[in-house]
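Give me the fold.
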Amino acid sequence: MTETVVRRRTPWLAATVHSVRSETAVARTIVLDVPGWPGHVAGQHADVKLTAPDGYSAQRSYSLAAPADGERIELTVQLVEDGEVSPYLVDELLPTDQLEVRGPIGGWFTWHATEPGPVLLVAGGSGIVPLMAMVRERARAGSTAPFALVYSTRGPADAFYADELAAADIATTMVYTRTATDTRPAGRITAADLPDAAGARVYVCGPTGFVETVSDLLLAHGHDAANIRTERFGPSGG
């Protein structure tokens, strides 16, 4: 079944905002209660639709940030300047507000706690969101699968979930493109930033250029292309 068919047959569901919390100065996690939500797997995403009083509607797709929790879901949204949807979600949405969601969507870029690992996660910017769902699912399920995360952002203030990742039982490497540290100059991700994770299932998520660069580095590093799963995003109007 193709993703197009899945979207057509999946109904829009009414969602109520349970709570919101800031992740960075321009990103926010939104917790939604969605009666009728069918459940999801870490790595999937959902469509969000906003409808104005005059009937005009706009929709965007956002990764699910947490594992399945009954009829409650979490989305982390980063502000897109001049966007139609993200400015409202990040700056205006409040608890008890309502919107519509549809999903879950996607079945290839997913991780199940029954998989033994090892797993290598590589995120660029807000590409951390579906990978964070995998990190949280591993903890929720009590999985002992070896996890390693390489997370590239402009600097520490731009990192989502910083405190939670610092406390997580996984090997995490931060790569800052515009902030130097004691162990690394500022700059884009290189082969030296990627750990030796032979045989690992690899998940790469981020902007298109980032995903292509990391995929090339992984292949040059000897990773099997069949073990590399990618998800990319680009300008969408927000």
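Residues 24 and 158 are 6 Å apart (CA to CA).
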